[in-house]
């Protein structure tokens, strides 16, 4: 389960900065969870970017910032043990997540963040330890995003593959065992190649973790020597024998497990309403950032699919197997940082105590991934800290009430304030009237010499080339059309070269490129289309968003009308629309369709 990997979005996480020089902080008389033990009352001294004293006594040093910890819990900065970090790199800090373990992202993104960390210049975003490019077969899981990645098919290719990943900067090796689902088979690595990859990683001193989605593959990966499983699996409860055998194998192999309850719940059609419905947390999410939390992979809620993961988590925890909190953020139903708070609550619901859940997001992932400088509150450790109201050791919900976050000894509150103001400004009520739409709402006025429109810049080709892609498109006005309206023929070739390739046409409603227009006067998008029988997408973009929100439509050899209510485009601010696009992709190949009579109507 991996998100669309987008190199162009890397810069989104680098837009804010905080002072490079840290201060001295004394968090006084707090309840302190040190990563293992909860201490009823302690004071912690931070100097520069390190914890100077985890049990400080005496007077405050001159010039120290003093923070009252009474009635509060201080714990290490949280670690999300399973993400795909390709955007919103500053967002985890808003929710106390100071480190992310990345399971597949662009190599350039990985290298740039690693360079910042080496230079001690990563104070304004979460640290990241990444697998870089995952190990999969041609056409296998991980290759579906339109961006060419190296693959392998045989055991004798494993050592060269691992060497190449290490040379790129991968911190560990991620291996895919993913056969797909009934009716939708996916090519996957054979067991011999999986074992060869694990062996090659171990020979070079690297961890090897395995993506699985069923019990059989989970057992096979453990038998092959995997250090950890980076998912559990949806489904009905296991039999007593299956459960006992699996737990025994995990313990025998000394493996860790990252259940990723958040994304498994998304597959089961279950939303993270506990965090999305918390006004204090939601105030830190822009519309774009909140949008993924409002959609799930499963179209309907089916809690029965969580029977197996809940059962297995409870049994593994009872047996003392290492469980790590990881969200698979970057996927539908999840979001960086905030989903960790939900993940920990889900682990508690599955049987962990709140203290065990705290360890699953601090010391446990640090230990599993050999991160020697974090995950604990101890002398000499990184000053990545989270202070919350209440007793997080007895109520995991206390993590919703963040007082302060420190990253490398710097308070994150200035960044959080900027984010709060950004979201508040975005949500502020508008006083201006919406744009007046033409009679009938028609925005396509195609003629032989012009792709005209009643307002805005109008119509133009749209491809991924501006982001380094290689897709191409040709637009041609046809003499014939439908209902007296000329049609625009769109001939596209979607080619590899970008993470999410596309080609088509776009309508720009503003008077300048990507300038927003207020389209609240319309409620529905209507258009006529015919074509080659393939599936296409309508993507709408509004101010503040980097990725359009899309709805699909199919074509046939006959003209038909497509009707798309605006309320299907969750997360779009229709008071600030910057683009409406009609695109082919991301599936590679050649496409052809005709479009006519495009209208924005209030009905």
From TrEMBL:
Which InterPro entries has this protein been placed in? Amidohydro-rel, Galactose-bd-like_sf, Metal-dep_hydrolase_composite, Metal_Hydrolase, Metallo-dep_Hydrolase, NADH-UbQ_OxRdtase-assoc_prot30
Q: Which residues form the Amidohydrolase-related domain?
A: 73-410
Span of domain NADH:ubiquinone oxidoreductase intermediate-associated protein: 459-575
Task: Give the record's keywords alphabetically.
Answer: Signal
Q: Where is the signal peptide?
A: 1-22
Q: Name one Pfam family in it.
A: CIA30
Q: Which PANTHER family does the UniProt entry name for this protein? A: ALPHA-D-RIBOSE 1-METHYLPHOSPHONATE 5-TRIPHOSPHATE DIPHOSPHATASE
Its recorded name reads Imidazolonepropionase-like amidohydrolase
